[in-house]
Amino acid sequence: MTLASFFSWLETTDVARAVAESLLATASLSALHLIGFTLITGSALVANLRLLGVVLSQRPILEVTEPARRAIAVGLAVSVATGLLLFAARAASVSVNSTFQVKMLLLVAAAVFHFTVHRSVTQRASRTTPLLRATGVVGLALWLGVAATGCAFILLE
Amino acid sequence: MTILDTCEWLETTAIALLIQESLYGFPILVAIHILGIGLSAGTLLWADLRMLGISLRGYRLAEVYRGLAPWFLTGFAVMIVSGAALFTAFATSAYGNVYFRIKMVAIACAGVNALIFHLAVGREANRSVPATATPMIARISGLTSIALWAAVIVAGRMMSYTMFSGP
């Protein structure tokens, strides 16, 4: 089975059809997806601004980045779950959309970066350094990239 | 002049026509409005979590609130400007939409909640209160804020799916 035929099959499942046929279901999932986005983006902003030494610098870095990491994990759980359901309803056409593909690439990059490089850099840091600042900038760029491509996808498709 | 008359007039203004007729005006404005949610509600969330007393407890309440205020206030400015522009372009559709009305009521309530918090706690928060203290009024205010802004976000999204259907 090719990926394309898998996506076509996905659209025919009961769950996918239930979402596709109900405006209320699609709207509600989209609204929850946006809640997840708010949790992720807000936490990524605060955590990375802390790395840049711009906010909440009175206390050690981990006091901000650790709770933020947990919140991003929760936000990801919500957004990925709702995103999968929204995707399933229109899998065939969405999967070949180049804006969506870029969004997925950036999402993977942002999440992987955050739970690996970002995590190890913050756990070794005691004060703001060039490495920490660079990590903050990369983190911000990746998460904002996901957000921007998400908007581009939903508004221009 | 009724509110509906005002809405109809708004849709004929130069700004409204610009947004309605330009290819990218509307998508760009909506994108700004959505990204602004991250800056406004996303950062306010962390101030609210401190107010609730469940996170950032090593900081004084005032430290968190004042530290994040420039960010969420800038975010709200972005939301107000982009929201006002979007409203002028589609005022009658928005005005008639139940989710838009819910959204506006929720925003008004959030404003009242913030005012109450400031009047009741604002001056006290930095004085003799120990760093990890969380007054009950702050907890209630923080929880209310989170609930109200979640409602605003959900109502806003529901609005975009339902305001353009129909004659």
Quick recap of the structure?
Chain A contains seven helices and no strands.
Report on the architecture of this protein.
The complex is a heterodimer of chains A (about 160) and B (about 170). Chain A is an all-alpha fold. Chain A contains 7 helices and no strands. Chain A starts with a helix and ends with a helix. Chain B is an all-alpha fold and about 170 residues long. Chain B has 7 helices and no strands. The relative contact order of chain B is 0.15. Chain B starts with a helix and ends in a 5-residue tail after the last helix. Chain B is about 80% helix and about 0% strand. The chains are: A mainly alpha (about 160), B mainly alpha (about 170).
SS class of chain A: mainly alpha
Q: What percentage of the residues of chain B does DSSP assign to strands (E)?
A: under 5%
From the spread of the alpha carbons, the general shape of chain B counts as elongated
User: What oligomerization state is this entry in?
Assistant: heterodimer
Average pLDDT confidence of chain B is: 90
Number of beta strands of chain B = 0
Q: Biggest sheet of chain A, open or closed, and with what strands and sense?
A: none
- Please give the alpha-carbon distance between the first and last residues of chain A: 27 Å
For the biggest sheet of chain B, the summary is: none
Query: What is the number of helical segments of chain A per DSSP (H or I, 4+ residues)?
Result: 7
User: N-to-C SSE series of chain A?
Assistant: HHHHHHH
Number of strands of chain A: 0
Largest chain interface and its two residue counts? Answer: A-B, 33 and 33 residues
- Are there runs of chain B of 5+ residues with pLDDT below 50, and where? none
Shape of chain A: elongated
Question: Percent range for helical residues of chain A?
Answer: over 70%
Strand coverage percent of chain A? under 5%
Count of alpha and pi helical runs of chain B: 7
